[in-house]
Amino acid sequence: MNNADDLETTILKAKEGNQIAFSRLLDMFWNDVYGFQLKRTENENDSEDITIQTFSKAFDKIHTFNDKYVFKTWLIAISKNIHIDLVRKRKKSLLDSRSNSEAITTVLDVAPTMEDQLIQEQNLADLLHDIKKLKPHYQEVINLRYFQELSYADIATALNEPMNNVKVKLLRAKKLLLEIIKNRK
Fold first, then answer.
1. CATH of domain 114-184
2. What is the tens place of the pLDDT at every residue in 146-156?
3. Which of 13, 39, 55, 128 could form a disulfide with 21 if both were Cys (CB 3.0 to 4.6 A apart)?
4. What whole-number distance in Å separates Cα of residue 64 and Cα of residue 67?
5. DSSP string computed for the chain
6. Which pTM does this prediction carry?
């Protein structure tokens, strides 16, 4: 099987709601989207936030993806639109100080992944030390999920973020934490 077939299969599985497929797509394209945004924004935090929002929106709208197009190009287009919207919102917020809040929808949490199981098996002291190596917003989402045992909906409410952003942020945090744990061994 070649890479194009593998990508096509992964996208089909993602369209069926397969969480492992979402994780693979995130792994495959995170650096492309993040790098694209880093060049545009010249700001690591903005780039990371926009990348998280990009995958959140893409995963939410994966059923609309037309396989006649290149998946990476579709992601970059979403990312570019999110950046444009962010710039517009910032300009508007300078003129208008009122803020809007987003409604949170409830979705069932998924079963523990391999990353979840590895994280749970770690010695608590070592795990806390490893978590401290993550960026603060990743530390916060890991803390809310694993130590306060909040659902995705509750985390979204606590962080005042859309639930899909929370899912992508948690997925990314788990991947980074897993890399830290593996490098420690």
1. 1.10.10.10
2. 888 888 889 99
3. 13
4. 9
5. --HHHHHHHHHHHHHTT-HHHHHHHHHHHHHHHHHHHHHHH--HHHHHHHHHHHHHHHHHTGGG--TTS-HHHHHHHHHHHHHHHHHHHHHHHHH------PPPPP-PPPPP-HHHHHHHHS-HHHHHHHHTTS-HHHHHHHIIIIIS---HHHHHHHHTS-HHHHHHHHHHHHHHHHHHHHHH-
6. 0.65
Which is more confidently placed, 135 or 111? Answer: 135
CA distance 56 to 178: 21
- Residues 3-95, CATH architecture: Orthogonal Bundle (1.10)
Long-range residue pairs from 160-163, CB within 8 A, at least 24 positions apart, any chain: 160/101, 160/102, 161/102, 162/56, 162/102, 162/104, 163/104, 163/105, 163/107
d(CA 14, CA 7): 10
Give the domain ranges of the chain: 3-95, 114-184
Tally of CA atoms within 13 A in the half-sphere of 57 that contains its CB: 17
pLDDT value for 100: 43
Tokens of 69: 């197009």
Q: For 54-63, 74-83, 98-107, 132-141, which range has the lowest pLDDT when averaged over its residues?
A: 98-107
